C-alpha cells in the first residue's frame, strides 16, 4: 500500500499526540496557512455528499505517504483549491473517520465533490490531472515520463522500516545492506535520468522526487538518531543533491514538521522492534543447521511420547 494504514499506526504510535508537539496546539490549525485544522464529525456530510462542492485532502503530518499528497498540493499551486484536514491516527482517532471518511483505512484520502480518491500515488496523480495537467510534474517528453514511472515503480520503502525496527545485532548488517542496496538502485535511476540534476529530471522537480522526499525528511534524522547511521553518505551524491535542494523549496517549508517530532513518533517503531528480537537459541533453531536439529529433536520427542504411551 502507498498509504499509512490507520489501524497499524494507531498501535505503532500508541499515545503519541502530534497536536501536543505543535506550536499553539490549543488553537485550531488555520486553513489559511495550510497547516490544516482537525477533521470533525460534522464535516462528514459536506465532504461525502454527492451534492458536495468541497475538495478535501485528509492526511496526517507524521505519515510520509500523506506528506506526498500535501507537498504536491503546494508544488502545483493547488493549496487554495483544496482544504487540507488533519486526521488523528493515535488512540484518539474516532471510529467515524474510518467508517465514513476513509473506508480503506488509510491516509491520505482525497474527496472531490463527494467522490473518494485513496492511496498517495493515486492522489498525487489526481491533483496533477485536475489542477496542473500541463505542468510537467510527471515529465514533459515520453522519455521523462518513463523515468518518473520507473522511479515510482522501483521505490520500495520496506527496507527503511525494516532497518529502523531491527533490534537484533545479528541482523543489523543485513538490514543495513538491504537499505543501502535500495538507495543505490534509486541513485542509479537518478544518474541515468539526469547526471547533473539536482532532481530526477534535471532542474525541474517531479512526482518522482516528491514520492521520495517525505521519507528522507523522516528517516534521515530518525535512523541517524536510533541506529547512528547516515542514510545519505558520500556514495549517493545524486540523492544527496536532490535532498539538499528539495529542503529549500517553499512547498517543503509549508508542509514540514520538525525532526524531533519524527524522532519521538517513530521511536515507537524502534521500540516495537524490540519485541521481535530473537534470543540466541531462537536464532539457532531458525537457521538451516538449527532447523535440521529441530526436526530431529521433534522426532525424538514424538517417539518418546509413543513409547511412554505403550508402557502405560
TrEMBL record:
Pfam families for the chain: GST_C_5 (PF16865), GST_N_2 (PF13409)
Chain segments annotated as transmembrane: 290-308
Domain of life where this protein originates: Eukaryota
Start and end residues of each GST N-terminal domain: 53-135
Domain GST C-terminal: 141-284
Name recorded for this polypeptide: Glutathione transferase
Keywords, in A-Z order: Membrane, Transmembrane, Transmembrane helix
UniProt keyword Chaperone present: no
Origin species: Pinguiococcus pyrenoidosus
GO cellular component, one term: cytoplasm
